[in-house]
Structure formats: C-alpha cells, structure tokens
Amino acid sequence: MDSITQAALGAAVGEAVLGKKLGNRALAWGLLFGTLPDLDVIAAPLLDTAGKLQFHRGASHSLLLMTIASLLLAKPLAKLWKRDKVTPFRAGMFVFLTWSTHVLIDCFTVYGTSVYWPFSESRVAFNHIFIIDPLYTLPLVVSLVWLAFLRSKKQQKKRARLLKWGLGLSCGYILFSIAMKFRVSTAFEADLARRDVAYERRMEAPTAFNTLLWRCVVDRGDSLWIGYRSVFELSSSPVRWTVYPRQAEALTPFEGEREIRILKWFSSGWWIARPHANGVWIADMRFGETRTYGAKPGMVDSRFMFSWSFNPDATGDRLRSPSLEIDPGETLRRIGYRIVGNTRQWEANPRLAGVPGSFPEWLPVVE
After folding, report:
1. Which domain range does residue 350 map to?
2. So what's the pLDDT on residue 94?
3. Cα(251)–Cα(273) distance, integer angstroms
4. 3-state percent breakdown (helix, strand, coil) of the chain, nearest 5
5. Given CB 3.0 to 4.6 Å as the disulfide criterion, which of 49, 79, 122, 325 pairs with 319?
6. What mean pLDDT comes out for the span 162-187?
C-alpha cells in the first residue's frame, strides 16, 4: 500500500498498544514503525531495475525479520519509555504488531510480499484491494487526526471509541472487498464454464481506487485472456474477453539472462513478451493497463502498467520501463461508467501498444 496508508495504520496500532501509556507519542512511534519495512527503498539508488524488483517487499517484509526486530528492540524501547511504565513485553508487541500489520495489508494487494523469506521465494498476494484505496485509508486518517486533539485523561474513552470506529470501518472495507471478489470470481468462473474454456489458472483484482469493478486474467498457457466485470452485473451477463498471445518464444534467446529470470519470477508467470530490434519487451499482466481511446474510431490502445524493455547490449541498466501518459480524470470517469454498466465507455476494438519500435497489435476478442 501507499506510504500514507502504512503510516496511518501504524499510528492506529501504536495508539491501540501504547496510547494509554504514551498518549499522542504513541501515534508518532506507530507512524515510524508502520513505515519502517518500506525503508528498503533506501537501497534503490544502489540497484538496477531488476534488483529493485527483487529487493522491494523482500527481507524487510518477512516474518523472520519482524520477529528478530521485535526481540532486539523490546528492551531498548522499554528502557526509553521507563517513566511511562512500558514493559519489554508490551514494547516488543508494539514492534511486532506495527510491522506485521504493514506486511499484512501489503499482502492484500497484487504486488506480492516475501512473508516467508528466506525459506521460500514465493510471494504472498491476495489481490483484494488496489495499492491506493481512499475508502480504506480515510477512516483511519480522520479518526487519528480527531483523537490526536483529545489529550486529557478524561478523554481516553473517547479516544478509544474513535480508534475503534476508524479501525472498524477500515477492516470492514477489507471484508467488503473479500465479499466482492468472491461475487465476481464466481461469475468469471461461470462464464468460462459456459464457454467450455480450459485454462491453467486465473486471478481477479480490483481496478484503480475501488472494489466495484474487477479485472480477471486467465492463463491458458499460450495466451492470457483479460475480462472485466462490475459487481452490479448479473452473474449471467457474458464477459468480453481480450486475448493476448503470450509469445513465449520471444524470450528463448534470453532465458539465461539474470534480468529475464527475475522478471519471470517477479510476475509469477503472468507475463507476455514481444521481440523488438534491440532485444525483447515483457509485460506483467497482473497490474492492469492504461487505456487510450480515440487514436482511431472505435479503438482502444492498452499499455501495461508494469512493462520493461530488455536490451542485452546496453551499458549499465539493461532493463528500461517505458514512460506512460495517464489521464487520471478520464480513467476514473470511464471506470465509473463501466461500474454502472455502460460498457461503451470502456470496451472497444483492442490493440496492444507500447512495444518499442512496433506498431500497435490488433488483439482477438471473445464475446
């Protein structure tokens, strides 16, 4: 999740664990420890693109490291807060809970989190919420700002009530997202069954800033299908699938390259590839695409949010991410229309764009 969300969640946990002891200082300490796992970005200037993908949400988000940090910091923090009568056990629990809730909420996104590092390279991703979702964050922020002004001991009960409301609404939103995902997942599965489509696996994730419009990616081996569904659609409504040929042969000349191995691992196999004059282009299909309308009548160009161009002969960083021009207002407007069932504002004849040195590629559609 974004830094504001992580800071707010950390502050809320700090208030829950240490609020009665430290007052508003608990919010500040919670904010600090709630953002601590993401300090792995400090190493970013020392890493190339592939290294950043491998390192971010890695060791700093593992159960092993959060447990070690909790044990090592328990006594020093208890000593720092000795006048406030904070025990080493409570101090250690504070570290563990602020750290673990940061990791837990990250697991609800698509990116993936190395919870079991170094014992497993697999990352945990539940795919329930977008990496920035104001409906999750705002209740926390509002309740924390409000309770920060309630400083007297007589107002402790009101602080506790505000915290319960903030955490309750945010946790309730997570439960809502789980329910919405179950609803659309069942409908996607039913649509594929009606078509008698065989596939290896599939995944669903929400579109930007909401949990009402969902995107499904279906892995059929030699191709990936992408379809959209609003939670308000009837389960019998057909899904319009766009077919993206995988073109795995484009990666064959580069299979031994470190960057390609990392990209295949990072994407958990949800990738497509295209050759180009200087190497190969690869996209991670889990994260969604920008959609550009109007280059030609009745057409939409898709450019993937996470895509890279690999040039084996380049000096320095051999992976480059193309710049994307995104119109947030246009995107949100069309998402809103699609949520309420206006498919015209969303669907069109699709093309894959953004491959270096290539014209947009027309894509098949399964109605």
Report:
1. 201-366
2. 97
3. 7
4. 50, 20, 30
5. 49
6. 97
